[in-house]
Design a protein that fits this description.
Strand content: 5-15%
Strand order of the largest sheet: 2-3-4-1-5
Keywords: ATP-binding, Cytochrome c-type biogenesis, Membrane, Nucleotide-binding, Translocase, Transport
Distance between the termini: 6 Å
CATH class: Alpha Beta
Organism: Roseibium hamelinense
Protein name: Heme exporter protein A
InterPro entries: AAA+_ATPase, ABC_transporter-like_ATP-bd, ABC_transptr_haem_export_CcmA, P-loop_NTPase
Structural class: alpha/beta
Shape: globular
Number of strands: 5
CATH topology: Rossmann fold
CATH architecture: 3-Layer(aba) Sandwich
CATH superfamily: P-loop containing nucleotide triphosphate hydrolases
GO molecular function, one term: transmembrane transporter activity
Length: 195
Amino acid sequence: MFTGLSFSVGSGASLQVTGANGIGKSSLLRTIAGLVSLTEGELTVEDGDPELTVGEHCHYFGHQNSNKPALTALENLSFWRDFTAPMSKTVFDGSAQAPLAALEMLGIGHTASIPAAYLSAGQGRRLALARLIVTPRPIWLMDEPTSALDTTSEAHLLYLMNLHLKRGGMIITATHTELALSKKQKLHLQAAELA
């Protein structure tokens, strides 16, 4: 449980959440995403769709990739596009990429017809990242986003993250790595903030 915790993130800004292992960084992201219930306090999205929850304005990119192993890379992205597209049109005017274009953008277009179960860890991570650009949402919640990425893929991810910010999106990331993001704010969690 968090106590005395307050923060705000404006359009086009990023918030980097830091702190020791187990301090609650991932729990904070899961709470914003609506995966963990808020016991008290309030989360709001100014100028968001009032009929949607805060979590419905977000893409949550956690430790697990959420790729369906039996589906090909292209089928995975098509599934997520179709599942989340109706909501995406109402909450963010981002630039959606077609599934195959998203795979190409992340350097894994050659894996389009390969089942996700056969992708390398890095390819699986990039496939999961591609979800962020096939159905735009204003808020990206990213838990250790550079995990399992090589140097080239990490640089490409940072480009996509900064592009999202440039388009007016917001990013909240929990990480031990210093990320080169524009308009970056920091929130450092300490034991005193836990009850």
